[in-house]
Amino acid sequence: MRAVTGLAVLASGAVLYQRATLSSGLVYLAVAVALFAGATVAVFVLAFRRAHRTIWLVVPALILAGTAVVELTVKQEFGCPWLHGEADLPAVSAPPQETVRAYLDAVVNDDRKTAGRITSPAFLRQEGAYPDSPFCNWREVSDLRIHIPAPAPARDGYREVVSIDLEFDLEQREPITRPDGHTIDGYILGREFPTDRWKIIDRIDIGP
pLDDT per residue over 156-191, tens digit each? Predict the structure, then answer.
């Protein structure tokens, strides 16, 4: 029974840590650490007290329940489960076009960790809140054509801002608010200083 509990602690801790590090904030990391630490302390306390065998079934159940709470919290914020892949992070000095390309690559790879480094927190939450969030629903972006960035007014604390229009062929898991096929889209990117990384801060919905 103790072995089962130990395995549950380790498995839940690994899952919680992965979800926390993929999140756009530190709140999940705090929750993960608290749950993992609490469960570990409980296991050692019960071990020294030589608790009844039924306790060793209750403890892993509580640990797994805590894991489920974090999973549901993540799903509630972003509107869909995490299906983590991996995308390449562009260099800090990369132009806005490369940031957009990297973001779309992160989207189709379900890689919010990379996406979170090239977008603002508000934009990432906004993208995840759509009923057909690109992270959940976009399967493939092909024939991508990114237009030349155009200067835009400063906003949201970003001194240097540009807008970029783009075209691509979209394949979704399930078309809900937009059809598959040729898509015209656009993004607003900003940075505070010339040495900063360009980040996507808003979307321009141009048309299907």
Answer: 899 999 999 999 999 998 898 889 999 999 999 999
* Cα–Cα nearest to 107, from 89, 130, 134, 80: 134
Residue 157 CA to chain centroid, in angstroms?
23
Q: CA nearest 201: which of 149, 157, 170, 146?
A: 157
**Cα–Cα distance, 81 to 84 (Å, whole number):** 9
Q: In the chain, at which residue ranges do the beta strands (DSSP E only) sit?
A: 138-146, 150-152, 160-172, 181-191, 199-207
Degrees to nearest 5, angle at CA 194 with 189 and 197: 50
Inter-helix orientation angle 55-78/2-22, to 10°: 10
Neighbours of 169 (CB within 10 A): 14
What is the pTM for the complete model shown?
0.64
Asked whether the beta carbons of 53 and 47 are under 8 A apart, the reply is: no
